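Q: what does this look like with 4'-deoxy-4'-aminopyridoxal-5'-phosphate bound?
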Amino acid sequence: MRASRSEVRTFNGARDVNRRADFPLLANDPGLHYLDSAATSQKPASVLDAIRDFYETSNANPHRGAYALSVRATECYQQARQRIARFLGVRDVDCLIFTRGTTEALNLVANSWGRAHVSHGDEIVVTALEHHANFVPWQQLAIEKQARLRVCELSSDGRLDLDCLRGLLNSRTRVVAFNHVSNALGTINPVAEIVELIRENSDAISVCDGAQSAPHLPVSFDTLGVDFYAFSGHKMLGPMGIGGLIGKRATLEAMPPYQTGGDMIEFVGDERTTWNVLPHKFEAGTPNAADAVGLSAAVEYLEALGMDRVLSHERSLMSRAQTRLEEIEGLRIYGPPALGRSGVVSFTMNDVHPHDLATILDGQGVCIRAGHHCAQPLMRRLDVPATARASFYVYNDEADIDALVTGIMKAREIFGYVPT
Ligand code: PMP
């Protein structure tokens, strides 16, 4: 049976605003405990309204028409780019390329920059902490180019082993691909230190997967120092199908296009074509303007909360969850201590398969993820086929943690758990 909720929610310790009320799916189902925001986040009404408003008042194909409605659509799309760029600390707005999300952004870098710059005998470094989206494109590029893929290993508590990274870097290293925050363990990686190591020991470019950092931490691309940063709108309160790649102007300008077609050209001759300027060179075809507008509304929502508050809210939920989960006999948590983590906790429980655990929790109205989290190289190193993962966001509170713990205890009961 699902627990009911009190009307007043807490955010960052203050009994103030009812965040949950901003999210129609959650507001309509008070017994639902959504703990899978690392997979995708729920959407506030303001985001849904912004998308609807675009279609009701400004819908036309951007960049294509001389009439006022098309100009309005173009303005909406560009304003969204500006707002999202500001949120992510990008001064050169045209260096934010809209993509379908992180996966497409990383494939763009591997296919465009990678194909042009990686050759036989070169080396590409990825980490054992990567989502498949920042592992497989590099692995495939290495196979195609007969380059060597090298994997940075982890410390026993799920942090990147920076000594290992140092040892892998050399004059043949072309790319170092790593995430800012791990989706599987929540590890927050020290980007500035990693960038410094790369610069000191190689001429490689740095490719940072920001799918799990843009939604949860204050991020400034201009100060991070990485060459590329990829993100997904749907994990940061925005719609599915929109995200982006941020790069440095000189690098992006020197890169060949990833896809070809409408809008990305300057002149098409019978034999040759020249390319449009940034960001259009990398945005072939009709852009996803409505969802860019939706993501802009999501960013506005997060800005109003303040990313420092978002982080500290998740930290306080995380430390409570950690304390409660550690009290459960037979439960094992993976990854660094709560302070070195964003709002993600990955765990297994003796004898109960993570999928069974997730199914039983679902019966209690608690949504968690079970599986390899698109991180099979990591699961091999943890020596488990799968983990259960709970992840928190702005609309979660202590009642969600209580429901999680109650659900796990229920699973123990069902499986007749006997302490060993
Ligand atoms: N990287 C990380 C760290 C992720 O968590 C995800 C989504 N689970 C991705 C990449 C891929 O993002 P998307 O599916 O939005 O392209």
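Residues 339 and 346 are 14 Å apart (CA to CA). The first strand starts at residue 33 and ends at 34.
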